[in-house]
Amino acid sequence: MKWIILASLTISAAFAQSPRFESTRLFVKVAKGAKLPESSLIQSAKPLFGQNYLVKTSNAVALENELKNNKQVVKTERSYYAGKRKLPTAQKTKSMDSSSFFEAFNDPKASKVWAFRDASRKGVSVNKAYMDPLAINKEEVIVAVIDTGVDYNHEDLRDVMWSNPAEIANNGIDDDNNGYIDDIHGIDTINKDDQGNASGDPMASHAHGTHVAGTIAASQNNGVGIAGIASNVKIMAIRAVPDSSDETDADVVESFLYAAKHGAKIINCSFGKAHNEGGMIVNETIDHIGQTYGALVIAAAGNEYRSDNDNKPKYPASFPSDYLLVVASTNKSGGLSWFSNVGQNTVDVAAPGSSVYSTVPGNGYSSMSGTSMASPTTAGVTAEVLSHFPELNPISLKKVIMESVTKVGRFEDLMVSGGRIDLYQALRHTLNNYDELVRNQSLKR
């Protein structure tokens, strides 16, 4: 018997309906050229980007009312909670099938990752891409995992963790003056000091984030455990999702900005909520990091039993940003997972997300199911493509992933691309269309 973690409701847990908001933080956007107004209610203010600030206050509602008629203030937005629920726990199940279909790596448990299979076997052609390489040269790609933290000491992850080159470990000093102390592998926005600054230790508090990280980039050919999809990736860990979900808009925005400013070109978001309250600061942040830092955000579509995101939006998945790629989940038979949300106009692609085998804390390995798992499968494929073709900007990269899918007839009305992602075909598509892709990027500058 082995452990399997049943996470098919992970995103649903974060999608709980809730009007709750932080009483001590408020987003404030001022007019161009204007300064943030002074107020006895403002304790401190952190510039975000453009004219946006995150303000620490003694009373968010009172400050909101005070600034309502101020001509220097364009808008204010509250920082809402996603909704609190208990995340799934591990359960025992029968041993998984480990049929020897996989040849590319020597990792003993790699054959359990069924997503590695070729497209004809309903996978994303990882095996084929490595056994019949279309491109050789690679550059390192940083992928940020915004989640419940990552066990950066895991035997299959410690060698692929991103390390902040400007920070000295465990000296209690903010060496690079970026506002975070000892942020070696990333940050923890949940645990803050008395001044409201995030911790520099993103160690996993739940298995979810470690599982996501392993799918993307677990060490290949190290003779241990599994292998990740991408071969030249560093994982930046950002803990912004509590063990009971309930992440806040402010922590999500901070996480996006930290990741992009520190070099992450791909940001995985296996979380979300079913309400937005009209605020667009998260979408504005995705646009900003895409345009300014060249980052692509990949998000889970949600697990609400085939709920249509076109009609019942989920966030961040339903934001309109061009720098956002949204992923539904498929099963071993190649069909849509029973729990996966869809959206002909708002869900972009599908990827394996049912019974995905990956890393969990304490040098363990287990399976999880959910669009939470389909998103990092896509992030791994996207990172591998980018490592071969680092000249691609996020818009071109998204285009490649969507245009190279394996078409599935019954997916045509369920998502934009109408198919499952495919690493081998994505590499081939980029090679065949490289000059045009790069030329179009240059013309749009």
Descriptive keywords:
Alpha-Beta Plaits, Rossmann fold, alpha/beta, 24% helix, 22% strand, 445 residues, 8-stranded mixed sheet, 4-stranded antiparallel sheet, disordered N terminus
Return the average pLDDT rounded to an integer.
91
Number of helices: 9
The largest sheet has its strands arranged as 9-8-10-7-11-12-13-14
Instruction: Name the overall outline.
Output: globular
Calculate the terminal CA-CA distance, rounded to whole Å: 56 Å
Structural class: alpha/beta
H/E element order = EHEEEHEEHEEEHEHEHEEEEEHHEEH
- In the CATH hierarchy, what is the superfamily of the largest domain? Peptidase S8/S53 domain
The percentage of residues in β strands lies in: 15-25%
The main β sheet shows up as: 8 strands, mixed
Tell me the Rg in angstroms. 21 Å
Outline the low-pLDDT stretches: 1-18, 88-96
Helix percent band = 10-25%
Which topology of the largest domain does CATH recognise?
Rossmann fold
**CATH architecture designation of the largest domain:** 3-Layer(aba) Sandwich
Task: Briefly characterize the structure.
The protein is an alpha/beta fold and 445 residues long.
